[in-house]
Amino acid sequence: MRLLRIAAGTEAVTLLVLLLNLATVHAPGVAAVVGPVHGAAYLTAIVAVLLHDGAPWAARWWAALPGVGGLVAIRLLRPASASPP
């Protein structure tokens, strides 16, 4: 679960950086560095959800959505009785 949290957070932050870069200066160097990090975090979040025991299908589908899917999957994987961290 810790790996999923790190990957989902990294995925969301790097997507924001990529979009801000695209909307402002569009520096190719930023995209060249942040793009692969975003891709790796995206794939890591998907694999982490798929390997999670008892993950519901909804969490698996949401994990495949780029940007926020990993964060939504974390919410779906959290037990109903667990309090937020």
Detailed description of the structure:
Keywords: Cell membrane, Membrane, Transmembrane, Transmembrane helix. Its main location: membrane. InterPro entries: DUF3817_TM. This is DUF3817 domain-containing protein. It is found in: Cell membrane. The chain is mainly α. It has one domain. It has four helices and no strands. It has helices spanning 2-23, 28-51, 57-63, 69-77. Helix 1 (2-23) packs antiparallel against helix 2 (28-51), helix 1 (2-23) runs antiparallel to helix 4 and helix 3 packs antiparallel against helix 4. The longest helix is centred in the middle third of the chain and has 24 residues, at 28-51. The radius of gyration is 14 Å and the shape is elongated. The model has no long low-confidence stretch (mean pLDDT 92).
Layout of helices and strands:
Layout: H1 2-23, H2 28-51, H3 57-63, H4 69-77
Helix pairs in contact: 1-2, 1-4, 3-4
Largest sheet: none
Mean of residue pLDDT? 92
Q: How much strand content do the residues show?
A: under 5%
Fraction of helical residues: over 70%
Domain DUF3817: 2-64
Protein name: DUF3817 domain-containing protein
Membrane topology: Multi-pass membrane protein
Transmembrane segments: 6-23, 30-51, 57-77
Quick structural gist:
The protein is mostly helical and 85 residues long.
Quickly list its features:
transmembrane helix; 85 residues; 4 helices; elongated; DUF3817_TM; 0% strand; cell membrane; mainly alpha
